[in-house]
């Protein structure tokens, strides 16, 4: 009987050992001698990234007008959809340091399977500066292996100041934030508020950088209070207030088409105060060349690419 129990124990150990071998960890990352950091810098975005051999890119990304985020771009996504663990681990040469956990993040079956928001992306950067290695771990897409992608801290500090310099030079807004701008006005008024002037200042800063903007459309609107003639004249005054501000700020008047519509095109009900407030507006829109091979916005990541 003792002999049978011994055989059973050995068999169990063999099965568990076999399962452990089968469910191995497949690690992707770099070491002391093969780590690279690269920066793509422009007024439109900063991309601070590390190539991960045989996997893809680990990217800290900051777009103008937005906040920092991290994403993992894969040449071939090996992780199953679900939740990947984010941990802060010691690199091989600092094995005594403690591992810390940052929770989980969603894995999608895309070329960019993982995105991590500002707070944890910033923490990952801080830990790289401390010589630690942020690591993403998830079950393999096929089989029982665990896939781990580690970001090496080697040479991080050497390039971090270049990233900060890029960050400082970013525009205050990106094109997506201004391409259809709505500027609000007080009831019966055409004065540019401090908020509107701030919005226009951001637009001017962007326009002076982006040579692919070819036309600007300024459209004035009113609510339905009062008569149609007065409303049309009021929308005209509002539109030209905006146009004059742009021109006085250095924008070419020849690029601007100014129009005014009175109460004809409401975007909300005129039966409520809140609705009328939305209708009292000037919109600013643009034509932009979208097929220029040197368009700097082509460097923006496509988070939906399969």
TrEMBL record:
Coiled coil: none annotated. Residues 286-306 are annotated as: Disordered. This is OmpA family protein. It comes from the Bacteria. Keywords: Membrane, Signal. Residues 295-306 have a biased composition (Low complexity). It is found in: Cell outer membrane. Residues 1-25 form the signal peptide. PANTHER family: LIPOPROTEIN YFIB-RELATED (PTHR30329:SF17), STATOR ELEMENT OF FLAGELLAR MOTOR COMPLEX (PTHR30329). InterPro entries: Bact_OuterMem_StrucFunc, MotY_N, OMP_bac, OmpA-like, OmpA-like_sf. Residues 173-290 form the OmpA-like domain. CDD domains: OmpA_C-like. GO terms for cellular component: cell outer membrane. It comes from Reinekea marinisedimentorum.
């Amino acid at each position: 009987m003792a002999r049978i129990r011994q055989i059973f124990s050995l068999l169990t150990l063999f099965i568990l050992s076999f399962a452990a071998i089968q469910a191995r960890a497949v690690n992707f990352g770099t070491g002391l001698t093969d780590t690279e950091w690269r920066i793509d810098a422009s007024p439109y975005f900063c991309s601070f990234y590390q190539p991960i051999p045989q996997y893809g890119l680990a990217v800290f990304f900051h777009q103008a007008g937005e906040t920092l985020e991290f994403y993992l771009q894969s040449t071939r996504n090996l992780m199953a959809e679900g939740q990947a663990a984010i941990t802060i681990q010691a690199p091989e040469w600092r094995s005594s340091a403690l591992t810390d956990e940052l929770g989980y993040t969603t894995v999608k079956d895309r070329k960019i399977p993982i995105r991590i928001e500002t707070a944890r992306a910033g923490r990952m950067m801080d830990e790289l500066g401390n010589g630690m290695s942020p690591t993403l771990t998830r079950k393999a897409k096929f089989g029982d292996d665990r896939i781990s992608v580690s970001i090496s801290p080697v040479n991080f500090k050497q390039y971090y100041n270049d990233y900060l310099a890029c960050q400082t030079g970013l525009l205050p807004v990106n094109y997506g934030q201004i391409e259809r701008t709505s500027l609000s006005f007080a009831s019966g008024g055409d004065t540019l508020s401090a908020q509107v002037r701030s919005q226009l200042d951001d637009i001017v800063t962007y326009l002076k950088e982006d040579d692919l903007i070819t036309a600007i459309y300024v459209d004035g609107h009113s609510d339905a209070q009062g008569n149609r003639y007065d409303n049309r004249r009021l929308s005209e005054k509002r539109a030209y207030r905006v146009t004059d501000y742009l021109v006085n700020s250095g924008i070419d008047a020849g690029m601007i088409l100014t129009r005014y519509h009175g109460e004809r095109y409401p975007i909300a009900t005129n039966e409520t105060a809140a609705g009328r407030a939305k209708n009292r507006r000037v919109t600013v829109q643009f034509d932009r060349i979208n097929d220029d091979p040197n368009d700097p916005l082509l460097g923006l990541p496509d988070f939906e690419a399969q």
